[in-house]
Amino acid sequence: MEFNPTTLPHQSIYKILTGSVLPRPIGWISSIDIDGRPNLAPFSFFNVVCSNPPTVLFCPSIRGVDGKPKDTLNNVRATGEFVVNIVTEELLKSMNLSSIEAPPEFDEFNFAGVTLAPSVVVKPPRVAESPIHFECRVNQIIDINNQPGGGSIVIGTVVHIHADEGVMLGGDKINLTALKPIGRLMGSAYCRVSDIIELERPKSILGEKK
């Protein structure tokens, strides 16, 4: 089958994209509005950009139910800060509950049954139960489209990292077995990181004499 994206509804394109680009990491983003009210929401359009400076991105989409930006996007525009909380198997149900579409005053932390913990550098709180947090300041926001199916790219610089000792190996390596991260698939499906394949990368030949 061949598809021209300009002739398909964005809902169909979404299904093809999310059913092909997987598994996707989940950025569980906590933020606050200008009145200090916390918000918590998961985003599977999320990834690392680079390590110098440490940079991450997530992509909040325009809500389909009312065609408006998500509260998370409004919050990071207003405050310039957010926290990435890493999702584990134990937190899967809580993460899913926090995906509820609700008004700005709704307390997703309470609804999801997780605990607010103060951050070290930024104002938005962390999810206390998450073993890894990246406190971030907004580097830039790139708006792609403000129509349903569209969205924005929020790029953040990591200004503080918290990692529980229980998921660490040495000073700078993550114990994957202890972390038990969750990946996003399509529809209502998620996956565990339980079947691991390890391959050594080819050695660099840059700079070798010909």
Could you please describe the fold and organization of this structure?
This protein has one domain (26-185): Electron Transport, Fmn-binding Protein, Chain A (Pnp Oxidase, Chain A, Roll). It is 17% helix and 32% strand. The protein is built from 5 helices and 13 strands. A hairpin with a 5-residue loop joins strand 12 and strand 13 (190-192). The protein starts with 9 loop residues before the first helix and ends in an 18-residue tail after the last strand.
Helix content: 10-25%
Instruction: Report the span from N to C terminus.
Output: 45 Å
- Which fold name corresponds to the CATH topology? Pnp Oxidase, Chain A
CATH superfamily: Electron Transport, Fmn-binding Protein, Chain A
What's the number of extended β-strand segments?
Answer: 13
Q: Give the averaged pLDDT, no decimals.
A: 95
Query: Counting H and I runs of at least 4 residues, what is the number of helices?
Result: 5
Looking at the overall shape, the CATH architecture is Roll
Q: Strands of the biggest beta sheet: in what spatial order?
A: 2-1-5-8-9-4-3
**Major sheet characteristics:** 7 strands, antiparallel
Proportion in β-strands? 25-35%
Q: What is the overall silhouette?
A: globular
Q: What is the string of helix and strand elements?
A: HEEEEHEHHEEEEEEHEE
Number of domains: 1
Question: pLDDT below 50 for ≥5 consecutive residues: which ranges?
Answer: none
Radius of gyration: 18 Å
Structural category: alpha+beta
What is the class in the CATH system? Mainly Beta
How would you summarize the topology of this molecule?
Elements: H1 10-20, E1 27-32, E2 38-43, E3 46-51, E4 54-58, H2 71-79, E5 81-86, H3 92-97, H4 108-112, E6 116-117, E7 126-127, E8 132-143, E9 152-163, E10 168-169, E11 173-174, H5 176-179, E12 182-184, E13 190-192
Antiparallel strand pairs: 1-2, 1-5, 3-4, 4-9, 5-8, 6-7, 8-9, 10-11, 12-13
